Structures are given as C-alpha cells and as structure tokens.
Structure to design on (241 residues):
C-alpha cells in the first residue's frame, strides 16, 4: 500500500476492508475519525506506524463476509446490504438484550444497582438507534438508490420535493453516528468492558457478549456509511444536478 502513512485511515479500510480489525484491536477510530492519516492516528495512540502498516498488510478477508470490496459496490446495492446485514441484525440484538437486562435487574438489581443504570441507558440507546435507522431506510437510502439507478441507466433524475441536496441529511446522520458510537462506548465502560460479574448466569454472560458484538458491528456499519456510501452519494448528487 503505497504512501499509506499519509492516507486517511477511513480510506485505508475502504480500500482494504480487513484492516478494520487492526484498527479495532488498537481502539483507533476508523469509522467516525476516518479522515485522520495513518501517521496521525498512530501518533495519537502512541503506536509505531510501521507496526500498524505491517499488520494492515497481513490482514486478510474473513470469508464469512463474502465479497468485502465494498468500495467497488454500487451505492444502491451497498445501502441494501447495510439494511439487511446491520440494521436488521441490530433490531434482533436489541430484542434479545432488552428482556435479558430486565431479567438480570429483577434477579440482581437490588444488590447491584449498576444493572438498573445499564438497563435504563441501553433503553435510551436502543431508541436512538431505531430512529436513526428509520431515517436512513425511509429517507436517505431510497434517495441514494434513485440516484444510483439514474446514473447506471442514464435516466433523468428528479429531486424529491423540498429536497435541495443529499448534503444536509448526510451531515445530520454523521453527527448521529458520533453520538451512537459514544453511547455504546459508555455501555462498554459501564459494564467493565463487557466482563461478566461473579453472579452472572449464562443469560447475562450472553447478553454482555451481544453488547460487545453490537459495538463492533456499529463501528463496521458506520464505516461503510461514513467512508464509502455517503461520499459516493455526495458525488452522485453533484453529478446529477
């Protein structure tokens, strides 16, 4: 990867998707903070940039995710992939975590009030995620698919009424992405990095594992939007004016 030290880390992951795991392991924000260069990110995290480069070069595809060259995908197809593989998965995770936290609070909440704090905060976060995903599914993603179809099939594109550009919804959703990542990070801190306490039964242990998985999924989900889908949408929007 030529001159990778000077490349934005979001671009690095866009060009070589398996690199996300390297940044995740070092807790480097490649999803919301993807505009920083590799050199800047390494310095901020006090990590040798050559170490990062070596690990990025050696990162390989997880075959279970199929074709991960998302940067080459049509933006309409990518938006559908995000809904299917991240929105619907988050919905299912929330439906598992909510009753499991309620059960844990009923059984251990009196002795461990931190469980009630986690339950209350997760309820808020779940609501924010649901609203955010609906905005994407009902407003932005259909708009992106219409633009992609117009571009691909050389068709005239007519903006929806009262819509000036895709820029404002993208800015709003990216701001929400920052808040979402911070909220799930707070849950990680509240749970002691998802470590099961001594009194935890299998249900609570599995719940903590799902919460950890949710945070990692959110990072990958945000990356696909912030660093690939949204830039493609903004470019399309300008081309079709």
């Amino acid at each position: 990867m030529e001159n990778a030290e000077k490349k934005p880390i979001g671009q690095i992951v866009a060009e070589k998707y398996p690199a996300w795991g390297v940044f995740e392991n070092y807790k480097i924000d490649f999803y919301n903070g993807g505009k920083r260069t590799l050199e800047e990110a390494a310095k901020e995290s006090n990590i040798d940039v050559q170490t990062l480069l070596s690990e990025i070069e050696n990162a390989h595809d997880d075959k279970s995710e199929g074709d991960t060259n998302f940067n080459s995908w049509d933006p309409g197809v990518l938006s559908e992939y995000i809904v299917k593989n991240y929105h619907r998965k988050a919905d299912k995770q929330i439906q598992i975590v909510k009753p499991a936290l309620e059960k844990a609070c009923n059984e251990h909440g009196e002795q461990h009030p931190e469980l009630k704090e986690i339950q209350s905060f997760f309820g808020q976060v779940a609501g924010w995620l649901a609203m955010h995903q609906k905005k994407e599914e009902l407003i932005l993603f259909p708009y992106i698919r219409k633009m992609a179809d117009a571009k691909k099939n050389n068709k005239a594109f007519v903006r929806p009424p009262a819509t000036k550009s895709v820029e404002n919804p993208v800015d709003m959703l990216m701001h929400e992405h920052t808040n979402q990542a911070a909220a799930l990070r707070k849950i990680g801190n509240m749970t002691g990095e998802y470590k099961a306490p001594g009194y935890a039964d299998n249900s609570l242990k599995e719940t903590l594992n799902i919460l950890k998985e949710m945070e990692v999924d959110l990072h990958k989900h945000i990356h696909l939007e912030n660093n690939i889908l949204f830039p493609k949408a903004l470019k399309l929007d300008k081309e079709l004016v």
Summary: The longest helix spans residues 114-152. DSSP finds eight helices and no strands in the chain. The mean pLDDT is 94.
